[in-house]
Amino acid sequence: MRITVLTGAGISAESGVPTFRDAGGLWEGHRVEDVATPEGFRRDPGLVQRFYDARRAGVASAVPNAAHLALARLEADLGDDLLVVTQNIDDLHERAGSTRVVHMHGRLGTALCRACGARSVVEPSRALADDDTCPECWVAALRPDVVWFGEVPYDLDLIDDALAATDRFVAIGTSGAVYPAAGFVLTAAGRGAATLELNLVESEVSLLFDEVRHGLASMLVPAWVDEVLSAG
């Protein structure tokens, strides 16, 4: 049984990680265009660096919840037959014990060098300044290693290969509003996979799934993992 899991903001919300965008379309009081686009970074790199510095520090104090732990437990049983693809930029999956995690939208814990493309670790307490130098090429060209609107998500070929080979696709805590992730259910279903959505409320793509369950991720995910493990 090969399983591909897609996780979104809803799985980390119960750990106290903000989902960023509010009902008015603002991210922590900022316009998305100002803090989550290449153009916004060019206009005011200091603002963008400070925004992600605050996110990095906030995530450092968060703790993986029962949903993260359940997926790590599932990986311990399935090994390479489980892949977690996350839209989240936090490291809660890894801190829960998962190792087969693809961060398609990048990570708060690394910086990306605009000059050479190298990635370097950024400690939670560190403020990333635009004049910080890359440890690989020594050019002052570091930016948050986050995929912004208008940029191509990471590892799409790897994800597509996983969807092509998977027997079951499960989306957890996703809004179904952001592509290409919102279209993964169609890709998986088109290749014969059973599909399941675990979400607090109906998403924009709930109707595309074979089965939908509503509730807290910390309740739904452990129960689903128990089902998979008991089935054997």
Topology of helices and strands:
Layout: E1 3-7, H1 9-13, E2 26-27, E3 30-31, H2 32-35, H3 38-43, H4 45-60, H5 66-78, E4 82-86, H6 92-96, E5 101-103, E6 106-113, E7 119-121, E8 142-146, H7 156-165, E9 168-172, H8 184-190, E10 194-199, E11 211-214, H9 217-231
Give a brief description:
This protein is α/β, with parallel strands linked by helices.
Q: What descriptive keywords fit this protein?
A:
3-stranded antiparallel β-sheet, 232 residues, alpha/beta, 9 helices, 35% helix, 21% strand, 11 strands
In words, what does this structure look like?
The structure is a single chain. The chain is built from nine helices and eleven strands. It is of the alpha/beta class and 232 residues long. It has a six-stranded parallel β-sheet, with helices on both faces. A three-stranded antiparallel β-sheet has the order 7-6-8, with helices on one face. A two-stranded antiparallel ribbon has the order 2-3. Strand 9, helix 8 and strand 10 form a beta-alpha-beta unit. Helix 5 packs parallel to helix 9.
Q: Which strand-content bin applies to the residues? A: 15-25%
Question: What number is the mean pLDDT?
Answer: 93
| Side-by-side strand order of the widest sheet | 5-4-1-9-10-11
Number of strands: 11
- The poorly predicted ranges are none
